[in-house]
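New to this. Explain the following:
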Amino acid sequence: LLQPGPTVLFIDLDNFKSVNDTHGHGVGDEVLRITAARLKTAVRQGDLVVRLGGDEFACLLPGVADAAPLHQLCTKLLQAVSCPMKIGDLQLVVRPSIGVAICPQHGTQADALLACADAAMYGAKRERCGYAVGQAINPLNPANTNNAAPSNQRP
């Protein structure tokens, strides 16, 4: 019995720039540290959490591809990150947007999965719905993934 391929979550903090602009980069850095710790605590042992840069994180989840556990995990991550953060005298609330890509239906290569999860995250951010699952690739034309440009080529 084959285990499902890894699922990739792309996580971005909504309006993070305003935290840095309003409270300074020291506070912004602490928000990122707290966010990373909360993400790491919320996922299972053996899942990987990485900071991609800026306010972007990714989670690699081996063996999770079913809708119910993914919904539970995304809900848990949204709740964990959205809890108020006490930093000095400040109490801040940051909300994440999460994009989900599952191997193989959203891609079989790391860059395709990350690009699909990134595009789904922008959909979640646009719809203000917390998280969104990427679009499946067309097996007849795998080069046309119907996803946004790779994450390093944002508009």
Q: What stands out?
A: The chain has four helices and seven strands. Residues 141-155 have pLDDT under 50 and may be disordered.
